[in-house]
Amino acid sequence: MSHAGTIIGIPGLEVVRVKRRRGVEVWAQPYRRPPCAHCQGHDLRIKATYRRTVKHTRQGNQVLTLHLRVPKYHCRGCRRYFRHPFAGIRPRYRSSEAYRMEVYEAHDGGVTLRKLSQTHQISAATVERWYQHHLGRKRSEMSNRPCPRILGIDEHFFTRKKGYATTFVDLRKHRVFDVKLGRSEPSLRPYLKGLRDRGNVQVVVMDLSETYRSIARQYFPGATIVADRFHVVRLINQHFLKVWQQHDPEGRRNRGLISLMRRHQWNLSDEQHANLMHYLATYPVLQQLYVAKQRLVRLMLLKTLTAKRARKKLPQLLELMDQLRDSPLRALAKTLTSWLEPIVAMWRFSKSNGITEGFHNKMEMISRRAYGFRNFENYRLRVLTHCGWDGIINRVRMDAHPPFMG
Fold it and tell me: Which residue of 30, 37, 186, 386 has the fewest C-beta atoms within 10 A of its own C-beta?
């Protein structure tokens, strides 16, 4: 590569002159004739030349503009014509691939359309068009993805007009697999039927949603359904706090007591535990329910158990649920009984939908930064860009920045 090619990033160029005005103007021309684009011959003559102006990266705070002298060749061997090719610059484009990728990465990183139009001397519509072009390239890369082995399913709010959307997460690789509008089986049916290699899914992690459980049974019949640990523990606490409200409405409003009731017993200091027991002594039924709740939560937090240990723990869980059936927490016992298999399966795995909830926080930030979305496909593309396509970003960058970019 020539010195000019090393500095500019495009090989085979000879700089004729450089001028600085509002930006950096570089006049250049190729210093070597390429082989014929059709027959790879070297017996060429220059038929004509023409000028081409291309925006190419930024140096400091100034846009570097290339004024290229482009020869048109005639091959005496095959008697065909072709124009001089430049690596990293497509025919009839007025900007290099490096420049387009620079704009895309800046906008993807949070720089607004208005700011980019000022710093890179292009219109906001052009920025959006380049951004959509790179997203489309990524989408084509991901069009034939097989289903992940460990799949997390959860819902999140999109807009008041369009309602909720369903998030599918590859929990093994910690990336969003896809986002689809709707959370019912009829709305997700076309997408789920078109999924490739649904038999690859071995584990489906979800909250205690009957809708998602029926979807998993119908479209992933060979997968093991695993309840999400966080949602199970939260459900237990919600039912207990509701019973507490019935027994002592005044105490339920005490923020200090609420904090002690919600926390795990092993996270309380001796003084805090003594104060809580002193309060519960005046409500014997509530005290027994609190002790049962703590035992139940301990069982829910178990994970990575062997099959032998899980079988030993199962009688304890069944005994607790029998006790709850004859108590004010009978509704909780009924729900846990209907989800007994996914809860027991939860003991065998360490994965949970905590990864999915983290992605939901990130999606909310994406939506806030854009001041909301009306078009779901635009929202979906941005979510997949930020949360789901890390594995192929390097491949796309290599396409846009060939090895000669150095």
Answer: 186
